[in-house]
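Q: what sequence does this backbone want?
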């Protein structure tokens, strides 16, 4: 009896092991290794799309530098350097843009501080926006703009305190319209940040209601006028008529601007020549040559 019992126990153990192995399921093979991305070669960098993109970024960097938009110039040169790391001209352009931005920030910051100390919130806000346009990460500029917003609200409340609450404490307070927003300082700051990220149309859409409202907001109108000029630069090579319209909108916001007037005159002259078939359309980022005065 001992041997059959031992045999049965051995068979039961083997059967249990087989059942456990079956429950565990088949072992999955290891995943195949992920192939590394192909390295960038001269052939891949010379694809027509990348070459055209690099050419556009170079033109954009040059145009931004000529207009003093140093942050935009840095972004464009950065794209060029990513495609051509050994390009000396791109690196010189980047260094020039960085140095110019630092110099302008060093000029605007003390002026903004002084305007704030004088209580001239409009001038201080305009100067801090210039600093933020050159360096969107400038902590003092962002904090100062928020402080100016708070100060404007405080001044508005002091100048127009709620009325009726002390004269008739038991009567329900009369429904009054909420105080008007303090000239849209948040919108101006937000639009400036959008513009630095290249979202020109979004920034324009945000500023238009504020810039065309009454009373006039000088900072909003000035920023919107400059954004229309930047939009014209982008459209000059693809849609000259839309670029001309953008410059016209800029002049309506900032009448008498000699630079914009000259560019508008040059674009109109170039458009007239193209209609006559004597001049090719300008490339993106280029300003058409000025018409000769006869």
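A:
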């Amino acid at each position: 009896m001992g041997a059959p019992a031992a045999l049965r126990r051995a068979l039961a153990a083997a059967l249990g092991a087989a059942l456990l192995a079956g429950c565990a399921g088949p072992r999955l093979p290891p995943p195949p290794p992920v192939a590394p991305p192909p390295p960038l070669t001269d052939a891949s960098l010379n694809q027509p799309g990348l070459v055209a993109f690099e050419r556009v970024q170079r033109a954009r960097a040059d145009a931004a530098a000529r207009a003093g938009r140093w942050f935009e110039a840095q972004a464009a040169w950065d794209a060029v350097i990513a495609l051509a790391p050994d390009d000396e001209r791109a690196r010189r352009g980047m260094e020039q843009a960085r140095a110019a931005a630092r110099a302008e920030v060093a000029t605007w910051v003390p002026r903004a501080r002084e305007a704030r100390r004088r209580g001239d919130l409009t001038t201080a806000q305009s100067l801090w926006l210039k600093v933020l346009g050159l360096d969107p990460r400038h902590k003092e500029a962002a904090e100062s703009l928020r402080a100016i917003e708070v100060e404007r609200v405080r001044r508005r409340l002091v100048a127009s305190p709620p009325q009726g609450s002390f004269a008739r404490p038991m009567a329900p307070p009369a429904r009054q319209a909420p105080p008007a927003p303090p000239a849209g300082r948040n919108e101006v700051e937000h639009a400036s940040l959008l513009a630095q990220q290249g979202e020109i149309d979004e920034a324009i859409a945000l500023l238009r209601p504020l810039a065309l409202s009454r009373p006039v907001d000088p900072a909003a109108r000035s920023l919107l006028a400059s954004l229309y000029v930047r939009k014209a630069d982008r459209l000059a090579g693809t849609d000259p008529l839309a670029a001309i319209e953008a410059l016209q909108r800029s002049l309506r916001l900032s009448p008498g601007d000699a630079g914009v007037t000259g560019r508008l005159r040059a674009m109109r002259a170039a458009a007239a020549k193209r209609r006559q078939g004597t001049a090719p359309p300008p490339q993106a980022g280029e300003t058409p040559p000025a018409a000769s005065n006869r």
